[in-house]
Write a structure and sequence with these properties.
The structure is a homotetramer. With about 120 residues, chain A is mainly alpha-helical. Helices cover about 65% and strands about 5% of the residues of chain A. Chains in contact: A-B, C-D. At the A-B interface, α1, α4 and α5 of A face α4 and α5 of B. Chain B binds a DNA duplex (15 and 15 nucleotides) through α3.
DNA sequence: GTGGTCTAGACCACG
DNA sequence: GTGGTCTAGACCACC
């Protein structure tokens, strides 16, 4: 896994784990790898991993069993809500940013369609 | 103008100016307000403004006339390219992020349409 | 280290570091002293050092590991190219300046030889 | 005439006039164009031209006749000396800079010869 | 008036 | 400990 330079690594780890959950690779109640394992896998400082987990802990997405490790919450509703709110955030941001470049909501869909089409053409 | 906390102010100023140009509020060859004026307007330190301008300077979007001020480049092609690349970046990021949440390109357009529709409903 | 008055200090620091690399005193992948150490050594403000490093960073000669420090790029090809282009710049400037004094390329080599010889004589 | 951004314009004008003299386009005792004419020619502020002339005045290269204009000194020896010292400066700087890149005096001549040769090849 | 450089010192984020 | 950002204020060079 590679990290971008302009965003804190612990946030990128957080996003990574969120995605694992959103994609169903980590399911409700499942144990996630130990801090050290994750740190090794991601070639990152242990502190950095811990910081990411702390945040998710305080958001209720993870919970810690002392001496056992960290687990994904069993509150499937919370998981679904979280996923949806992340996606909505993304959409909101996107719409906002495009408007700042003078692209109005009405034009947004067609702009996106064109982009996807062009991108596809390039790789053909 | 208000600044977000998690992004350096000088980058936000840069983005702001880029948008002004993209929207045609600052046109090729036009003088932009002096660093001190901008600093006052944005209630920010002069150095912070200068840093933003320096970056744009080194990217060729602005140029400095000593003792006179900063001006938007007259290279309209560069301006157009820059605008387009900023928009494409935005699109690329968006598509990438959504894919990370398991939303594939095929579904993207409809997801966006739904979002825009729902958002509209809320405000009715 | 002493600084000339007519050139910005941060540029002189940049040049200094470039030379350290060109001379092999700083090698690919090596950590360079922390900004604070450098600032102390050079009896200069931390910000001034940082500005020099930022430039080299954006040129790809250095990269930053958060919380760890700055490192010389491991891209040895880039290093070699950079060194060569610095030297070529120097040569180009020299040739150009001499031509402006009416010394043509044909005479350049002998002019240089005479200069080196005379200079040697003085110190004998 | 075009000016570099990183060097004060008045210095560049000074150098320009020095070269005109060194090349014999302006000879001892000759009147140089009026400040306004020069300013127009070079599309530069009048103040800027004046500043350049002031410096050359104080160095004795030019002298002012009130109400008549500026003239090149008639002291041909001073002119010759000045020219020589400018050239020597250039040489000294060059040797110094190259040494900073690890190119010793012994290698200098051959480095220069190679450069001139390569450059010639490119334009063939 | 314009921008450019530098300082001292503060506070923050990261590992 | 590392670097990054920001401020306030000074001084300079240029037009």
């Amino acid at each position: 896994m590679e990290f971008k330079d302009n965003i804190p690594i612990y946030l990128q780890i957080e996003q990574y784990l969120y995605r694992q959950i959103a994609l169903g690779k980590l399911t409700a109640g499942e144990k996630i790898p130990s801090v050290r394992k994750l740190a090794l896998e991601l070639t990152v400082n242990v502190n950095t991993v811990q910081r990411a987990l702390q945040q998710m802990n305080s958001q209720g997405i993870l919970y810690t069993k002392r001496g056992e490790g960290n687990f994904v919450t069993e509150d499937t509703q919370l998981l679904a809500e979280t996923k949806q709110s992340l996606i909505n955030n993304e959409l909101e941001q996107f719409v906002q940013n495009m408007e700042r470049f003078g692209i109005k909501k009405v034009e947004l869909v067609s702009t996106l369609e064109n982009y996807l089409k062009d991108e596809g053409d390039q790789h053909e």
